[in-house]
Amino acid sequence: MSNRRVVITGFGTINPLANNVSDTWNKLINGESGIEKITAFDTSELPVSFAGEVKNFDANEYMGKQNARKLDRSSHLSIFATEEALKDAGLNSEERLGPNVGIVFGTGIGGIGSTEQAVRTFDERGASRISPLAITQLMPNSSTGQVAIKYGIEGPSLTITTACAASANAVGEAKNMIQNGIVDMVIAGGIESGTTAMTIGAFAQIRALSTNNENPQEACRPFDKDRDGFVMGEGSTVLVMESEESAIKRGAQIYGYVAGYGASTDAFHITAPAEGGKGAVDAMQKAIKDANLAINDIEYINAHGTSTPANDKNETAAIKTVFGEQAYELDISSTKSMTGHLLGGGGAFESMVSVLALKNGIVPPTINLKNPDEDCDLKYTPNTALNKTLNVAMSNSFGFGGHNGVLVFKKD
Amino acid sequence: MEVNEVFEKVKHLFVDELGIDAEKVTMEAKLEEDLDIDSLGIVEVVMAFEDEFEIEIDDEELTDVGTVGQAVNLLHSKL
Questions:
Q1: Is-catalytic flag, A164?
Q2: What is the ipTM of this complex?
Q3: Model pTM?
Q4: A6-256 domain in CATH 3.90.1170.50?
Q5: SS (H, E, C) A319-358
């Protein structure tokens, strides 16, 4: 069973750039930014006033107020992305998917907005006024459960909370589940909706965020000498993953193959990457080996590339350790320069980007890369997309906690 | 307060606070079957009643409440 190949047959996404796959892709290859002034709440007390918010989405309109008010925003976005992914994969979202379909979602901080609301209510009005929905909205597995209920997903379910590596780990674990013959199909995805006042304030306190309030669209500048932190983003991206035989049997389109997965842990510091990116090196090497490929097969890397001083320098060093001289030939980009950091939603989004890069033969750019850093001296596809026939891509995701998840995708 | 006034206030809560379609909210409507209010939803409804009418409702008082009309009559009896 372990020889089963795993394919992707559907994508759905809602993110700071757009609320569908094709507009998202077009904006990415045109180098457009989805970062704007925050509209959801008053930022006057915060050191950071911008983020990548999802736009033009009204949950009340989408699912009706009676349903929408029961769910955290993270579940609104997850259900939207799942619905789109199922349609894209040619599945009937009105029918229960049943016991041969699993679900693996990744999230960093789950229903943090609902947590904040419940704490406010408790402080202001006491325990007897806390919403009876609070627990079901704030628990990190809330979206996994809500999506499973809506689509009748009865196979195994997992919610992975490895911070910014969460949905890379989700895609990887989903691949293993299918490869090992546990189920034929997994709905794998990432979700984050943590662009709330407290969360932004808290990330700002650890100096993780860019404070370029004057030019939000230029704030996220991965690998640039003047980078000053990441930009918060929100969104959900869902992949329909299945065994190749299952996809062929039902005549589904095949976007590409999830060929390799490597995971590791720094076991070093709760936020800082290990010097030289040792954990990242291990995860990349494992992913290449898992795909039965050699380093010179890798052509494109969708980097973690957060735009923090520490990540971009250490990720660059890690890529050099893994690839040696070939590191200088690889096409690399950080699409976070356009979406911001989707935290637990990043790995799934960037899996989609990596596969679309293979399918379309285009490397999306790293925007805002104007003044190269001498510690970051690889080919990061600055500012303009690159047309190039590609066969194999890698996607890196590294999270607070020292969690590393790396995926390798093949076109065929 | 008259029974029909209580009903109007209850209807307003169901529609504006809970997002339930106005035409579904009748005295005869069953909370669970017709209005899709589950066990968690009942707790919300009770909290909304308590806030709106400035009363307290014990769990035991809800045992026989299955329709909007029964809820309205309970509230009316407590005002």
A1: yes
A2: 0.88
A3: 0.96
A4: no
A5: HHHHHHHHHHCCEEECCHHHHCECHHHHHHHHHHHHHHHH
